[in-house]
Amino acid sequence: MRLNIQSVKSLINKIKMISLISIISGLFLLSGCGKYESTFKSYDLVVAKVNAEMANGTDGYITINIGKDVSEEDLSNINYSIDTMQGNVTSITTYKKSALSDSRKVKLTIERADAMYVYDHILDGKEIPPDKTKAKELSEVCEKILKNLIKSGMSDYEKELAIHDYIVDNCSYGLSKEKDDSEYSAYGVLINHKAVCSGYASAMNLLLNCAGVDSEVISGKAFSLNSSDKKIENHAWNLVRIDGEWYHLDATWDDPVGESDALSHEFFNIPDSIMKKTHTWDVSKYRKCSHMEYNYYKYKGAYISDLTSLENYLKVQIMNGQDKVDCVLNNLDIDENDLMFLYGIDRVKTVGYSMSDQSEYRILVVYINRPQ
User: If residue 350 lies in a helix (H) or strand (E), which one and from where to where?
Assistant: First the structure.
């Protein structure tokens, strides 16, 4: 068989084209199963990707490329940052860095949260899959809690307060003894009664939404509850909408470590201006909170700005039989001499008190000892 010059040129061009296609195909395969994959260059972008996958109902693994600025420590803490109402990352596998870039491939296994199955079941009547035994257990407990706490005619504020107090009274901060990561979820709070901040926030979120109160989980940073050196750590809490306005609610910080009987309301419905003293977050990502009407202390008339009002408030509460009284001192500085009047109240034997650090939002707690 003889080939003329034109046929040879045509054959060479075909070979070049096939080679080019093979090279391009190889590049696409290197970038991920025949399609181009974006590189997530920051931790926030990785968190956003995982949240988006969970919102779409992902229950399995995803594989993504991450940039050099996303550290292994960042990835290990991802459950502090994602929306644990939707799910958790249960395992992370990091592959070698790409030869073509500074990115590396990471496999993240996502387990859809039991809370989502519970939410769908309670609000929409959807059946929980037979293999989701923890979700069924959690659903039964949630329905029982809501039946006991939520009464006909309650306002959203009253529902929020009842759920908050139940969680703080029935859960303690810490890791699960079973080492099953349940402390990051509503299951840890409501079943095991042991959780970290994301568990508290997830449980609040689940019960509030099932009770008809709008709530979201917010991720940021705050001082460590276990640190005396004010170490900043990843943290999660809630945004709650009451009467059309949004407020910060941090049930974790209202349940002080080492004080099992201390039910606090210091972080119950506070605005950005107060929350930012102890917490940080990306304000561009979350709703603005600027109101005080449904702050716990403001709502119950315990937001005190002068000594006369303080004396009147404490007298009324103690004479009504309260042995522990708390209130907010709004830019009001006091010392033990300002509380000496309490000894003039009938049957008051000794008086103790404590105050938080924030001058414009200082929590005063007064303890009264009466003779038996």
Answer: strand 350-355
Structure tokens at 118: 């519970």
Kindly state the average pLDDT of the residues 241-257. 94
CB 264 within 8 A of CB 356: no
Q: pLDDT per residue over 109-163, tens digit each?
A: 998 888 999 999 999 999 999 999 999 999 999 999 999 999 999 999 999 999 9
Where do the DSSP E strands lie in 265-335?
Answer: 268-270, 279-280, 303-304, 324-329
User: What is the secondary structure of 214-277 as a DSSP string?
Assistant: -EEEEEEEEE-TT-TT--EEEEEEEEEEETTEEEEE-TTTTS-TT-TT----TTEEE-HHHHTT
pLDDT digit string (tens) for 32-67? 343 446 899 999 999 999 999 988 888 899 999 999
DSSP state of 35: S
The CA-based diameter of the chain, rounded to the nearest angstrom, is: 121
Q: What contacts 343, CB < 8 A, 6 or more positions away?
A: 351
Positive or negative torsion for Cα 113, 114, 115, 118: positive
- C-alpha count within 13 angstroms, C-beta hemisphere, residue 124: 8
Share of the chain above pLDDT 90, in %: 66
Locate tokens 């799910």: which residue? 87
